[in-house]
Structures are given as C-alpha cells and as structure tokens.
C-alpha cells in the first residue's frame, strides 16, 4: 500500500503491560488508516489510564503533526509518572512520522552528533562497600566507561546508631520497603495506605530523619571501598540518598568531595530551587536532578539558579522526544551537561537514544536492565549494548521493525488485559478541555 502522508490518520490505541523490564512497563501502539503502527511507552511503573484517557482526543488526527498533537494533550500531563500518557503518544507519533518519511527520528530532530550513545547501568549490590566495588568493577570489565550506584540511608537501616528519627519512623520505613519493593514493582493495592504510605509521600525536609556521625562515617567508608576497587579515573554518580533534610545532604556531600563524584542525584526535591542553591554553595560535589520534571519551563528555574552541573530528564516524563531535546539545548545555554534517566523497555530506551544522538551536550544514558537476559529481545532487531555503548539506528522511526509478540505475551502482567486488547471504551471520552473562557 502506497503511503499518503497528507491523509494519514490515527485510528486506534492499544496497550500491553509487561512484568519485570525492569519494572511493570506499559507499552503502546498507535494504529493508522494506512497500516503504519507507531510504538510508544509510558514511564516505568506508570498507569496506562494516563494514555487511554487521551485516545478520543487524538483519533482522526494526522500523527505526523507531532507538535500539534503534543500541544493538544500536554495539559493532561504532570510531573513524574503523570506525564506517561502524553509522552507515550508523542514518542509513538515520532515513530510513525519517521516510518512515513523514511528517516530515523534523530534526523527529524536536526541530525546527530554521535553514532554511538554512551551508557551507564545503575548498579545494585548486597553487602558492604567492597561488594559494591566488585559489582562496579564487573561493569567496567563489560566495557562500561561510566558508573552509578546508590549511596544513602537504605544502607544504614540495620546499622545501630547510624540514623536518628522520631521513635517508630525507622520501623515504618522498613514496613514501607515491604509495601513498595514487591517483585517487579507490582504493588498490592490493599497495602497502599497507612503510616508507610504517608511516609512514602513525605518530602525530604519533613521526615525528621537524620544521619548521625556514625552514619556519615559508614557512608564515607563505603564510598572509599568502592573507589579502592575501581580507581579514581572512571566517573561514578550516586543516587538514592534518602529522604533526609538539606543540612544532612550538606554534611554527606562534604564527606564525599574527595571521591571525585560525577554527580549527586536528587538530593532534595527538584521543586525546592533555593535548597539546591544552598547545597551547591555548600559543597564542590556536582549536583544533578530532573527525572521527575515535566516540560522545559519547569527546568528553567533550576538552570537560572546556577545550582546544577547535570540535568537528568527521562524522555517519558519530560514531555517526550522533542521536549527532551529542547531541555538539552536549554541546558547547554546554561552550561549544564545532560544525561538521561531510563528504566523502561527497549522502546523507551530507543526514544532516549535518538534524543541523545541529536543533543550536543549529552554525556550518558542510564540502563536499568543490563541483568535481564531477555530485555533487548523485546524488539526486532534486538537492542544491544556492546562494550557500554548503543549504536544509533539508521532505520526509519525509532528503528524497530517489529515487537517480539511471543516474548511480550510470555511476560504479560497478570493483573491487566491480554496484550493489545481493544480499548473502545475510551473512543468517545469527552470534556470541554479549553483552559480559558
């Protein structure tokens, strides 16, 4: 069938929810009247409803008019996972546009600065600093040239005297870990209430949890053991400090300055710009944030503050492919390096790869699925990270010829409909969406 771009229309939207890639992932297909299908994905551990509710607002639209569709639906996005529907649709539209015009998405963004995208893999380890150092060393032996690890209060939960908090808080935190850290991010709805859930939704300044000198000593020694294992030449970023107040972040950052960190991530909530400024002024450790921020205008106060060395958006939260490219360009204007957060399937990964290829100040892309053997096989051709780099595809759209439907079916989440089930219940959803009178 000959493609007629001018008369292309979106006709349907369907989903497949899979388990363990690395979390629950909601994949999306946009169907058209000319047989072209676009692939998208919601942010890890998001809700397909964020996209399904937008179906009636895009049916009949030409998916090649990506910016028009994005501007119509972006009002329904929000920070973190709430942006998932808008971003999934935007990514799928770019995939269709590339397929229709026969070019890769990076070409539609203005061309590429690199043929290979550097990756780092967030690394988990049980035990002490030497164990983490060994795990990081193994990443280097596989070819990774950039490293990241967690370093925070989760390491101190069973270290007597390392934390202080209102009596009962630490026990509640342990309860929280049982509630939320279920296999592959599958949450038991009946557990989503009570003190553990309240603590989960309490921002850093308000938890009353503090590091003691013993806790600071432990984390400093943990980091020292990691550096002893891998050396000082390779960059290491740290994440997941925990919900501790600014003053404790300052104490910890000062202890860690000697370890030549690439950045300290999400130390305080991203919205609290002045706290980022205070932390920046108190330490020489580079600071980074951004994975939960939606739309470029939300990044601007942080850029203007001068507090960030690194911005770390997620394509499936920031607003999609074009919006993330714009964020990277804005970051460059303020002298800020861009890295990309990514904890999704190969669809989300390839969306990030195209942005990374087309953004000059990009450094590294997160991979959260290095240890999942079947992850790259979810798409055809299979997505490979070789010696720490992903080759930028030259095929049209995202570079996905097809999805591995058998593999998707075998990893389908049991709590959701069968992959690609009809969604006609969303065909006629309507409201007066205009935001002015």
Brief description of this entry?
The protein is an alpha/beta fold and 437 residues long. Helix content is 35%, strand content 15%. The chain has 16 helices and 16 strands.
Rounded mean pLDDT score: 94
Number of domains: 3
Question: Beta-strand level of the residues, as a percent range?
Answer: 15-25%
Give the terminus-to-terminus CA distance.
Answer: 45 Å
Overall form: globular
Q: What would CATH call the homologous superfamily of the largest domain?
A: Enolase-like C-terminal domain
CATH-assigned fold name of the largest domain = TIM Barrel
Strand order across the largest sheet: 4-5-8-9-10-11-12-13
Tally of DSSP helical segments: 16
Ranges where pLDDT stays below 50 over 5 or more residues in a row are 179-187
What's the alpha carbon Rg, rounded to whole Å?
A: 22 Å
What share of residues is helical? 25-40%
CATH architecture of the largest domain: Alpha-Beta Barrel
Any idea of the CATH class of the largest domain? Alpha Beta
Secondary-structure class: alpha/beta
Largest sheet: 8 strands, parallel, barrel
Number of separate strands:
16
Secondary structure: elements and pairs:
Elements: E1 10-18, E2 25-32, E3 37-41, H1 49-52, H2 55-58, H3 66-73, H4 84-101, H5 105-108, E4 116-123, H6 129-141, E5 147-150, E6 163-164, H7 169-180, H8 195-200, E7 210-211, H9 213-230, E8 236-239, H10 246-256, E9 263-265, H11 273-282, E10 287-289, H12 296-305, E11 310-311, H13 315-318, H14 321-333, E12 337-340, H15 346-358, E13 362-367, E14 379-380, E15 389-391, E16 402-403, H16 405-410
Parallel strand pairs: 4-5, 4-13, 5-8, 8-9, 9-10, 10-11, 11-12, 12-13
Antiparallel strand pairs: 1-2, 2-3, 4-15, 6-7, 14-16
């Amino acid at each position: 069938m000959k493609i007629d771009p001018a008369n292309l229309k979106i006709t349907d939207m369907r989903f497949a929810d899979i388990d363990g890639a690395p979390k629950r992932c909601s994949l999306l297909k946009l169907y058209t009247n000319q047989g072209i299908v676009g692939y998208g994905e919601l942010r890890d551990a998001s809700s397909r409803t964020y996209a399904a509710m937008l179906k009636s607002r895009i049916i009949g639209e030409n998916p090649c008019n990506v910016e028009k569709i994005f501007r119509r639906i972006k009002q329904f996005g929000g920070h973190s996972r709430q942006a998932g529907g808008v971003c999934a649709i935007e990514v799928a539209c770019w995939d269709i546009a590339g397929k229709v015009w026969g070019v890769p998405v990076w070409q539609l963004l203005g061309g590429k600065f690199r043929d290979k995208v550097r990756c780092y893999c967030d690394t988990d380890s049980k035990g002490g600093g030497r164990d983490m150092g060994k795990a990081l060393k193994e990443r280097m032996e596989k070819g990774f040239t950039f490293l990241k690890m967690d370093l925070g209060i989760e390491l101190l939960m069973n270290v007597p005297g390392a934390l202080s908090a209102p009596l009962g808080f630490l026990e509640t935190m342990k309860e929280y870990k049982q509630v939320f850290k279920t296999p592959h991010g599958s949450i038991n709805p009946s557990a989503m209430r009570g003190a553990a859930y309240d603590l989960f939704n309490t921002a850093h300044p308000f938890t009353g949890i503090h590091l003691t000198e013993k806790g600071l000593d432990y984390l400093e020694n943990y980091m020292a053991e990691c550096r002893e294992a891998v050396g000082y030449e390779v960059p290491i970023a740290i994440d997941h400090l925990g919900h501790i107040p600014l003053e404790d972040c300052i104490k910890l950052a000062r202890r860690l300055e000697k370890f030549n960190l690439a950045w300290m991530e999400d130390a305080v909530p991203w919205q609290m710009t002045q706290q980022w400024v205070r932390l920046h002024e108190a330490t020489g450790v580079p600071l980074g944030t951004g994975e939960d921020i939606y739309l470029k205008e939300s990044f601007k106060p942080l850029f203007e503050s001068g507090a960030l060395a690194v911005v770390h958006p997620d394509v499936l939260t920031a607003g999609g492919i074009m919006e993330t490219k714009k964020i990277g360009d804005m970051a460059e204007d303020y002298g800020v390096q861009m890295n990309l957060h990514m904890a999704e399937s190969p669809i989300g990964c390839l969306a990030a790869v195209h942005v990374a290829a087309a953004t000059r100040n990009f450094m590294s892309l997160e991979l959260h699925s290095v240890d999942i053997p079947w992850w790259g096989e979810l798409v055809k051709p299979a997505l490979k990270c070789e010696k720490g780099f992903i080759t930028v595809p030259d095929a049209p759209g995202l570079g996905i010829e097809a999805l591995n439907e058998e593999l998707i079916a075998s990893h389908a989440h049991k709590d959701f409909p069968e992959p690609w089930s009809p969604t006609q219940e969303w065909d006629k959803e309507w409201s007066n969406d205009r935001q002015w009178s």
